[in-house]
# Entry
Amino acid sequence: MNLPSINELVAYRKRREPALGVVLYAHPDKLSVLSEDGKRYSVEPKKVVLLTGITVPETLTDSEKKLEMRKWRRELEEKKDSVDMETLWECVVEEQETVSFEEILELYSGAEQVSLEQRFLLFWAVDKNTVYLARGENGYLVRSREDVSKTLRILELREEREQKAQAAVSWVRSVISGETPPVVDEIHGEFLELIERYVIDLDGYERAKEAKGFLYEAGLKEVESAVEFLIKTGFWKKDDDPESKKITFHFRHSQRALEEVEAILSAEEDFASLTDRTDLEVFSVDSETTQDIDDAISFETHGDQIILGVHISNVAHVVSRGSFIDQGALDRAETVYFPEGRVDMFPRDLVNKKLSLTAGDLRPALSLFATFKREEFTLIDYSFEATVIRISKNLTYAEATEMLRNTQWGEFLVSLTDSLRAERINKGALIVQLPELKIRIGDQDRISVSKDYMDSPAHNVVSECMILMNRLSADFFDKNGIPALFRSQTQDIEPEARELDPEDVLFPVKVAKHLKPSFVALAPEVHKSLGVSRYVQMTSPIRRYTDLLMQRQLISWLKEQKICYSESELEATNTHVSLATREIKNAQRGRHRYWFIRYILEKDIKGATGYVSSKGYSGFNVYIPEFLIELPLSNSGGRVFDIGSELSLSIWGTDPLRRRIRVSPT
# Structure
């Protein structure tokens, strides 16, 4: 190649694409060029693909030369489609596999002389073309008729889609402005699905870039605006939002899993390998709305001994490891509870008809039988058995409390569990029973809000029975060398936490600051908050996958089989479940806040009484006991408040979709 002239405009390869440069210095081994972005680069002569013969005035500054190159690029891009590439390609497609630019130039010009500008345009059209020719090492590869046909079809479809997208953008804008009613046709539905998937998964959606571009063009520049549009068109219901939609979208059970459920439901029950304990009077205690019942209790007296039975639904007996049902449950990690309803870890039919401990039904269970001295309530012995039981009653907490108070054995059970609690307190447990704000959505989306106080005798009995099951399971795993996911909390509890007054209106906020996080590990350590030496979670296998893991570990040992999971398998599964659980907890908190703010709006609540709870970087926070919620104080006008001060608050700026609620002093 000849060396270019100083100030000559050249085209050179930059990551295979043609770039423009003005030559500042030329040497056989190296060129110095001013690039289109105004920077100076060293370029190997072999990377120069076209000497244009066009020079720019040397009197121009670097900035002016940069503008000149940009002008050239703009003109080349505008005019390149005027070159008849199809005719040029037809001349060589049956004759050659490769063709040089000089050969193309000869075909293009024939006997006529072409100007430098025409030659430059031809190069640009050829080099930027992706249909008929492809860049090769020495010239251009001539694409086959089949390849060209496929490429043209792809471009045609792309153009059709771009036209559809532009039409959809115009439709969205006109709906937003009110010029067009939000009537959705098939084409609009396609783009509404694009919006839906993006607001659900954001950048995790494979077409996120396309979706963001469409939303920007349509004027929907925030996710919440896109959601409002989906609702306006009727594509989403009034109270749909990304958090609930994401869970329901990704929690759909596979067809193969549903087929397995059908097979299980139609098969004969097989309890032959289980110990028959249908002689026991077994009852469950749950809230009024609970349908996925994991656990139940039995109570027997034999002379000077009491046998407490804790029975957990034997999901492992029904769901095989590695089945499609099991894989789906692993992916989901746990059941999701929204105010508007639950999204099950297992298919709903399987839960209701085979797993849930419903009254009157035979159910496989993993049973703990703990034997205590009748007078001292000291633990003598315990054992685990894979059993079949028949649930006598499904009780609410109120019904169970009534039964515990009015039966002799109920009084014994309360005394026993009180003793278990006292033992834990003596070992350092911090017993905190905070009320929860329960939000339920009834018929016609009627919102009810109530405080759930979990300090009744029935609550205490159930809590202590489940803690007993979990700590004795952990003890069993440890003593027998069974790999397990032990839950521990090793940080000391500050003495101030025990000195807090439960009657203090700010007790929930103050005590929360002293609660320490627990962690999961393969080695057992103390759980100081619970006052136990070791602990696992395994009382909720219908709704927590890690509880099912622990159940399978214990049952495989009882059956004298190979232990179901190795330590490495447990660790890997727990990592996956922990990530999924974090996302679920965030979604549950978000939906709870959504419905709470909807309730405030629906009831037209304009004010509340709050108490200054803390001072943050940007101001004060207030706790509102009526709603068990702590919120930042807005528009306080720079005023300073004492912690604990009672304030009359104005509630404003409520926006459920954006999870926004503001309070300020009246």
